[in-house]
Amino acid sequence: MGHLFVSYASVDRARMLEVVDAVRAQGIEVWIDQTGIAGGAAYGTEIASALRDADAHAERIALRDAITRLGTADLSGCALVGSSRACGACADAAFRARIARLWHGSPPVDDGPPHRSA
């Protein structure tokens, strides 16, 4: 894995920049999306819509966004970073999307490649 895509809300900027620095220290190239982030009312509408979805964990929303942006369901070579460890359903979704590695926390902890849940 050589690249990491990071997209975050402006309120999380300081924390995400800490994560980005730690990931870069691992020799991974990081691309930060600072222009495609919905703000204000658009962000609120997106979250409200997601909350009506039983599968709307942050990791699942991020996977759907990456699939849409990249135009493919195969996310081989991508990493998924979250503020906490992914639940079994999210880890399974990451596995099915072929995510290379999961990271969580600040500083980020490398959870390794996702595994199919039982």
Word description of this protein:
With 118 residues, the protein is of the alpha/beta class. It has one domain (3-112). Helices cover 40% and strands 19% of the residues. It has four helices and five strands. The protein has helices spanning 13-25, 40-51, 58-70, 88-96; strands spanning 3-7, 29-33, 79-82, 101-104, 109-112. A three-stranded mixed β-sheet has the order 3-4-5. A two-stranded parallel ribbon has the order 1-2. Strand 3 (79-82), helix 4 (88-96) and strand 4 form a beta-alpha-beta unit. The longest helix has 13 residues, at 13-25. The protein is globular. It starts with a strand and ends in a 6-residue tail after the last strand. The relative contact order is 0.17. The mean pLDDT is 75.
Strand content: 15-25%
The biggest beta sheet, please?
Answer: 3 strands, mixed
Instruction: Tell the overall outline.
Output: globular
Output the radius of gyration: 14 Å
Overall pLDDT, averaged?
75
SSE layout and pairing:
Elements: E1 3-7, H1 13-25, E2 29-33, H2 40-51, H3 58-70, E3 79-82, H4 88-96, E4 101-104, E5 109-112
Parallel strand pairs: 1-2, 3-4
Antiparallel strand pairs: 4-5
Give a short synopsis of this structure:
This protein has helices at residues 13-25, 40-51, 58-70, 88-96, and strands at residues 3-7, 29-33, 79-82, 101-104, 109-112.
Question: Could you name the key traits of this structure?
Answer:
118 residues; alpha/beta; three-stranded mixed β-sheet; 4 helices
